[in-house]
Backbone:
């Protein structure tokens, strides 16, 4: 997973937020920004969001939904969902390691 | 209000392929959200990123230099560099000989200038060729109007005069060398008709 997402550079964190946002259903850019701000507290700007969308679409992790509307929604693909699962598993391992080490240090002090 | 206008104009900095793919969505996003200085800076950064990673834009086409821009640039190169140089090559050579006496840097610059001169000449000739071809076909086409054919004739004549300065060059090379130093002659040339001027009809 780390190998996959390391190629995203500074967009790694934003890409994770976008994948989490799209995991519950398709959304267009405006709704994505609001959703991400709501669940993570991160206020994304359009340039950053679309930099991440471009990379995710290039990798086939998200895809645009055909619509006649001006606002084009995006949805997560199966490949994107697998990537998200792997990345969340990595984050859980990090969180457990962090919690364990923090507990040890608290115990010593 | 001003920031919104700036943000919308920043979108024009993105590559064409990006604008075709995402331009409308981002413009809509900018129009429907509050625009801050941070938004403008973010869009400028996004434009730089899109240019740097042009290959990642979905549905992009291979990058090509616009033919019109290339023709203009090459035509300008022909006009500015090649043609005046060919018309009076001795003067160019003399200037560089004087410059090389000043030091090694001038010698290096002479080599660079020669390369650029030759490149500009080739590019200039290539730039004129399609113009002449287009004008020639317009001249021979009965479907074209009188004005179009007259313009095409002018284009062909001008292109030939610019690209083939052989007669003028031949005349200028047979002139007698002037005893007046080049700087003095240059001043004289700018104030009156020079004695070494090409005598082409």
Residues:
């Amino acid at each position: 997973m780390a190998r996959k997402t390391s190629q995203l550079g500074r967009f790694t964190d934003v890409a994770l937020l976008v994948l989490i946002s799209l995991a519950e259903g398709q959304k267009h850019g405006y709704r994505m920004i609001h959703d991400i701000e709501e669940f993570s507290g991160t206020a994304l700007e359009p340039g950053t969001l679309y930099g991440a969308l471009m990379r995710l679409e290039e990798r086939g992790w998200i895809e645009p939904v055909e619509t006649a509307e001006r606002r084009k929604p995006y949805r997560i693909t199966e490949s994107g969902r697998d990537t998200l699962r792997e990345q969340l598993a990595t984050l859980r391992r990090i969180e457990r390691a962090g919690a364990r080490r923090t507990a040890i240090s608290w115990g010593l002090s | 209000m001003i920031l919104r206008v700036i943000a919308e104009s920043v979108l024009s900095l993105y590559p064409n392929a990006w604008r075709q793919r995402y331009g409308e969505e981002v413009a809509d996003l900018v129009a429907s959200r509050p625009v801050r200085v941070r938004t403008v800076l973010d869009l400028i950064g996004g434009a730089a990123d899109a240019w740097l990673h042009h290959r990642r834009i979905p549905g992009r086409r291979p990058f090509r230099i616009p033919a019109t821009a290339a023709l203009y640039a090459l035509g300008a190169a022909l006009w500015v560099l090649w043609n005046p140089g060919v018309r009076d090559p001795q003067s160019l050579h003399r200037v560089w000989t004087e410059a090389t006496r000043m030091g090694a840097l001038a010698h290096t610059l002479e080599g660079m200038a020669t390369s650029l001169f030759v490149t500009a000449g080739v590019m200039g000739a290539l730039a004129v060729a399609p113009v002449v071809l287009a004008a020639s076909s317009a001249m021979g086409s009965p479907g074209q109007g009188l004005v179009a054919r007259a313009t095409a004739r002018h284009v062909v004549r001008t292109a030939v005069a610019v690209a083939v300065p052989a007669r003028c060059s031949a005349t200028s090379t047979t002139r007698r060398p002037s005893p007046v130093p080049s700087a003095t002659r240059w001043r004289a040339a700018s104030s009156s008709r020079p004695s070494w001027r090409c005598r082409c009809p």
Notes: The beta strands of chain A are 62-64, 74-76. Chain A touches chain B at residues 28-30, 33, 45-51, 53-55, 57-58, 70-72 (CB under 8 Å). The mean pLDDT of chain A is 88. Chain A has five helices and two strands.
